[in-house]
Amino acid sequence: MTSSSVINVVGIGGSLRAGSQSERALRIALSGAEEAGARTQAITGSELVLPFYDSGIPERTPEAERLVEAVRGADGLIIVSPGYHGALSGLVKNALDYLEDLRPDTRPYLDGRGVGLIAVAFGWQAAVTTLDQLRTITHALRGWPTPLGGAINSAEVKFDEAGGASEEKVVNTLRLIGRHVTEFARDRRR
């Protein structure tokens, strides 16, 4: 946990398309964290274009270093992945693989951090299986998935450029996930 009184929440996700449905979902969830008093940072799209993770190569690109340092300083995370063919995207999975660099830290991996998880896919099956995979990865990285996760079917829900969505209940759910991450971090700090 960071030493300041400010809760830092890092959002990771989206796709290579700027303003993708999954990136818009991430930004709504981060707005919920901000409403709860967190300082937020989003690492999305082109910022996630990293070389394939290889633990045998110690050199890191500036983008990979930025990702690892952001997570190292985070009190909580929100991770959003598009669902591609029933699974999380390679872009997001590769970014999460870089968290192996946190293994030797005093607080390794995602230890002690609340993690909000959201999957956005064109269909319920891919949204739900992607969310399940994100939960499994978070557990493996010693993170604490929030009880509420978001499985968003983009065949039924569309996000807009103004920070909203075609269904207000989806916006409310995403904001709640962001608030839960912030509240978990605040409770852990106490």
Automatic annotation (TrEMBL):
InterPro entries: Flavoprotein-like_sf, FMN_Rdtase-like_dom, NAD(P)H-dep_reductase. It holds the Pfam family FMN_red. Residues 8-147 form the NADPH-dependent FMN reductase-like domain. It comes from the Bacteria. PANTHER family: CHROMATE REDUCTASE, NAD(P)H-DEPENDENT FMN REDUCTASE LOT6. This is NAD(P)H-dependent oxidoreductase. It comes from Amycolatopsis dongchuanensis.
